[in-house]
Amino acid sequence: MAFEGLAARLQETLKNIRGKGKVSEQDVKDMMREVRLALLEADVNFKVVKQFIANVKEKALGQEVMKSLTPGQQVIKVVNEELTALMGTEQSKIAVAKKSPTVVMMVGLQGAGKTTTTAKLASHLRKQHNRNPLLVACDVYRPAAIQQLQTLGKQVGMPVFSLGDKANPVDIVKQAMQHAEAEHHDYVLIDTAGRLHIDETLMTELADIKSIVQPDEILLVVDAMTGQDAVNVAEAFHEQLDVTGVVLTKLDGDTRGGAALSIKAVTNTPIKFAATGEKVDQFEPFHPDRMASRILG
Ligand code: GDP
Predict the structure, then answer these.
(1) Is the complex ipTM more than 0.95?
(2) Is 113 annotated as a binding residue?
(3) Is 168 helix (H, G, I), strand (E, B) or coil?
(4) Is residue 297 packed enough to be buried (19+ CB in 10 Å), middle (13-18) or exposed (0-12)?
(5) Nearest CA-CA partner of 286 in 268, 271, 264, 266
(6) If you measure from the C-alpha of residue 48 to the centroid of ligand 1, how many angstroms do you get, rounded to a whole number?
(7) Is the C-alpha dihedral spanning 189, 192, 197, 198 positive or negative?
């Protein structure tokens, strides 16, 4: 399970302070040393860890906490709040355009789960928001990506717009937009091409698509299992495209937590959704507070 090691360590550390009727400055410092090590071991970005520890210390050592009747519990509350804030404070919703259709560009490296996530998001929009999305197959380079999206589209009962793998992505999106308007789709989800590594050709193509469709949302799909690499990928995409949200995939794996806990702080882009399996319904809005509580037990 994701975050298992981190959760176990933090829970063990916090257990010591939880029941304390009196908490000394030294107690808080000792606890935070352990918390720091646990976060670093979970592959959380070191700058993020440093800031986190400073924030918790400042608040936990404040008068109100130390002089409260249950200082141990108050300190834990501070840790919980700061952990939540690290991942985004509140649940970030997907954009809704003033004028339909809302256009969402899905971007990310190959293998991150972009195509699967595109279908999952379509299904989510239909089921939870009663929307009528059109899926657009723009990944013309990865063998079988178009077929994969078509198969997934069938599975979730959603139409897929495609011009095959010989067409130019810019032409595809242009025609897809006309099609979406004619067919009254209220969301257009564009599955763009990924690469194994970030390269200029990929970014130029994405920038071209972006300038044509003027998306309301650019969702970056990242594999949570890749830890700090995911954060670096997010920074690079964000720099080029001004990403508006992140989807963390593979949270069902034994990811240590580094990506989930660092990506918002490093890129200032909210995590909007989490994917927790290969099946289409293993996808949900990301709730920072629930994730923090899950980690702290
Ligand atoms: P793309 O290259 O980014 O379009 O990636 P795909 O959508 O083809 O996904 C790559 C692989 O990851 C596929 O085998 C998916 O079934 C799998 N996958 C996607 N999301 C998840 C997830 O949340 N959990 C797990 N365990 N596997 C996932």
Answers:
(1) yes
(2) yes
(3) coil
(4) exposed
(5) 271
(6) 28
(7) negative
